[in-house]
Specification:
Layout lengths: L1 E3 L14 H13 L6 E7 L9 E6 L2 E6 L2 E10 L13 H8 L29 E2 L4 E6 L8 H7 L2 H4 L9 E10 L9 E11 L2 E9 L5 E11 L7
Antiparallel strand pairs: 1-3, 2-5, 2-8, 3-4, 4-5, 6-7, 7-9, 8-11, 9-10, 10-11
C-alpha cells in the first residue's frame, strides 16, 4: 500500500485530476509487477480528487486507487495483443508542428487548466494536438528531464487522442485507457504524439494514441475510451 497525493498541477478539469496522469500512476505501479505479454488496463471510476490522501494498493492481480473506501481507479492486466491496432501512423516533427497551429484548444478549451493540453497550465506538458484532417491529431513534445518517467508518458498519450473527438460539441473525459510503454524518450528529445479516432458508440468514443521518438521509433501506445459529459459538472 502506497500513499498518493495528486497536486493541483496535475488537474484535468478544474476540480479533478487529469485522467491520463492518474491512470499513469495506477498503470505504472501495476506494470512493475506484471509478467511479459501483459499490460495494464486502467478504468477511472470517479473524478480523481486532488490534494487529499489517497491509497494505492497493488498486486499482480490488479491495482486500486482509493479515497477511503471509494474506488477512484482500478487496473487489471490484459494481453498486450489488445494494443495491436493502437499504433497510429506517424508524421514528421515538422508536420506535427504545422498541425499544432490548428489546435482547437487554444480558442475554446473545455478544461483550460488541463495538465496535458491546457493553455492555462504553465507547469503542464503544453501539448497542442491539432487535426490532420483524417481522424488523426498530431503534436510535438520535447520533454524536460523531470517529465520522462512512465507516468508522464501515460499522460502524453491521453489528450492527443481525446482531441480526435470534437470536444467542443462532444465534451468528453477519459474513462478507460490501456497503455504499453516500450521505452522512455531522452530529456530534450524532439518527439511526436499522434491520436486517432477509432469508433463512436453512444456516449462512448474509442481512440488510439502513439508516442514516437526523434528517429520515428514507437516509445509508447494506448487505446482509450472517452465518456461524453457535461463540463459544468467537472469545472
Amino acid at each position: 500500500m502506497t500513499s498518493v497525493w495528486i497536486e493541483r498541477r496535475f488537474q484535468g478539469p478544474a476540480r479533478s485530476g487529469n485522467g491520463g496522469y492518474v491512470a499513469g500512476l495506477v498503470g505504472t505501479a501495476l506494470a512493475g509487477v506484471l509478467a511479459d505479454g501483459l499490460v495494464p488496463q486502467v478504468t477511472l471510476r470517479v473524478p480523481p480528487p486532488m490534494e487529499v490522501d489517497l491509497e494505492l494498493v497493488v498486486s499482480s492481480a490488479g491495482a486500486q486507487l482509493l479515497a477511503g473506501e471509494q474506488l477512484v481507479a482500478g487496473a487489471v492486466p490484459v494481453s498486450a495483443e489488445s494494443l495491436t491496432d493502437a499504433v497510429v501512423e506517424p508524421v514528421s516533427f515538422e508536420e506535427a508542428r504545422k498541425a499544432e497551429a490548428a489546435y482547437r484548444g487554444l480558442g475554446k478549451h473545455p478544461f483550460p487548466g488541463c495538465f496535458v493540453c491546457g493553455p492555462e497550465n504553465a507547469t503542464g506538458l503544453q501539448l497542442k494536438p491539432g487535426p490532420l484532417g483524417d481522424g488523426r491529431t498530431a503534436c510535438t513534445w520535447t520533454p524536460a528531464a523531470d517529465l520522462v518517467d512512465d507516468v508522464f508518458l501515460w499522460s502524453a498519450l491521453d489528450c492527443p487522442s481525446g482531441w480526435s473527438i470534437d470536444l467542443e460539441g462532444r465534451p468528453s473525459v477519459l474513462g478507460q485507457i490501456t497503455a504499453c510503454i516500450d521505452a522512455q524518450p531522452r530529456a530534450g528529445e524532439d518527439c511526436v504524439v499522434l491520436g486517432q479516432l477509432l469508433e463512436m458508440d453512444g456516449r462512448k468514443t474509442l481512440t488510439a494514441s502513439t508516442l514516437y521518438d526523434s528517429d520515428g521509433r514507437v516509445l509508447a501506445r494506448a487505446r482509450a475510451t472517452w465518456i461524453l459529459v457535461d463540463p459544468a459538472l467537472f469545472n
